[in-house]
Amino acid sequence: MQSHGEHLCRAIAHALSVSSKNSDSILRILSTVALLVRLTPLNALAPLLIQSGIFQHVINALEDDKASGLILAAYLEILARIILAEPNGFLQIVHESARVQHKDAHRTLEETLDAFWRNFDYVGEARRRKAVAMAAGALLTTVGVDTSLPWRPHTDLKGSSTMLGAIRRRV
Predict the structure, then answer these.
(1) Cβ pair 74, 30 in contact under 8 A
(2) N or C: less crowded end of the chain, CB within 10 Å?
(3) Rounded to whole angstroms, how far apart are CA atoms 80 and 66?
(4) How many CB atoms lie within 10 A of CB 143?
(5) Is the pLDDT of residue 51 over 90?
């Protein structure tokens, strides 16, 4: 990831942007992203997901009412794999993504969690359903944002307890 990660993530982001929303190719791309999340340490991958726009694409795609259930499930799996890798890291990614887009981090987290719960029923495959359920549980047991991660966002994370309160209210 150190030598080719940036190029790989830019290529994936480009493929996501030019692919049809309900095509087989988008499912293959999303499977690749899920595998990438599973294989790469989050502290190395998180900045690449944010800078390339992949993370924001995943968040935005969950809001698409016309996407097929299989595709929504694939997007949810990506979020679930990030959460399972590092729940605090997920909160930081949401926070940093909001900062980059000049949005409120708490609102972005709330919208992300709302999409997460709203689309849960689309996850039919047992492996994915288990990952999404485990991710929800991991978020509920998260104590706060770990500010010791090397890719820590540039902003202050004092509001992490409020973010976690939003998570717990969603369940």
Answers:
(1) yes
(2) C
(3) 22
(4) 10
(5) yes
Spatial neighbors of 39 by CB under 8 A, at least 6 apart, are: none
Burial 63-88 (b: 16+ CB within 10 A, else e): eeeebeebbbbbbbbbbbbbbbbbbb
Q: Which residue in 64, 46, 39, 60 sits closest to 6, CA to CA?
A: 46
Dist. CA 132–CA 139, nearest whole Å: 11
- Structure-block tokens of residue 122: 């689309």
Rounded Cα distance between 39 and 81, Å, is 10
Predicted TM-score (pTM) of the model is 0.81
Residue for token digits 């309900």? 22
> CA of 155: how far to CAs of 18, 65, 95, 96, 105, in Å?
32, 33, 8, 8, 10
Residues 99/56, Cβ–Cβ less than 8 Å: no
Q: How does pLDDT run across 103-127, given as a tens digit for each residue?
A: 998 999 898 889 888 999 999 989 9
